[in-house]
């Protein structure tokens, strides 16, 4: 079972939350962050390179020093304040009329090392190293990771009761997503939440934040090695996560665009695809208007944008193994039968001919990048399900790169956890 604890969050006063809270560090480049950041924005702490003119190297020592300086300054100015007692928190996000509710809590680094916190993606050491530096220099988890857990009726009841109260924070961000945040400070409720997770929740599943999770675990291991009196209960053994019941989460599509056809003409590509797919043109330009986008209708059905037209690619029987949790994924089918076999893309992590587009940008982004001449062909995939993700994590398998996209992203700055 998982090990969790409440914590005394450092967070903004309610009247400042909209000015302080920001989008996560990894969804903005430095130029975008500089334009978006107001005076009190957490981006000055998560992306402090924006405070330099010109924008500095984000991995340079002056930038790391600026991050520490700004974190201290925000607390000195009262833009961030520590709660007086250890609490759990409830964080809800609303997008397209759907709201998902997650507990903000501290998970234990041992659970990651022991496989109780389960991953479904590989991490890259360079990205782990970068996140590890930020945790180490701040002695804090500035941004949370995003976990899922199996549904539990009593936790659902606590969510419902808490959400019926007045939220501490309640605002709609510039992207139109709603953010709602409650403080759970009742001692009996805190104790019961801890008991339920400890006794009834067998695992956490990393939804988003594999590198931050790995970095937090490494910092914890580093600190315990430096403490001869280590017990396992020290604050550095814990890191901040927002944990959602799996039924509340929705994975959206994560699509692919390719720069060339590997020497093939458009007709030759269509002919090659017919070996493994039923290929059908769905829409084409009419009356001077672009073709209406075609979205995949179900698993193993793909849409392709080529030469101004949208096609349906229906995978033929026998082209995948239903008993193989990885082989049955649409990302694997597309990679094996199209990207590798036909287009010669062998490694999704390193090949510069392919790029990935989160479904939040819409199918119009795929056609735009092809019509602009930047790319030659685009493929849209049916989203992976939470059941597929959990099955892969439970069986110890790893998904191919760029398989899942969760939206909305967690807003940074609603709560910060320090390691002391």
The main sheet comes to: 9 strands, mixed
- Which percent range describes the beta-strand content? 15-25%
> Number of helical runs?
13
- Cα Rg: 23 Å
Estimated structural class: alpha+beta
Overall form: globular
Report the average pLDDT across residues: 95
Quote the distance from N terminus to C terminus: 25 Å
Give the strand tally: 21
Helix content: 25-40%
Low-confidence spans: pLDDT under 50, at least 5 residues? none
Summarize the structure in words.
With 420 residues, the chain is an alpha+beta fold. It has 13 helices and 21 strands. Strands 1, 4, 5, 6, 8, 9, 10, 11 and 12 form a nine-stranded mixed beta sheet that branches. It has a six-stranded antiparallel beta sheet with strand order 15-17-16-19-14-18, sandwiched between helices. A two-stranded antiparallel sheet has the order 2-3. α4 packs across α6 (125-138).
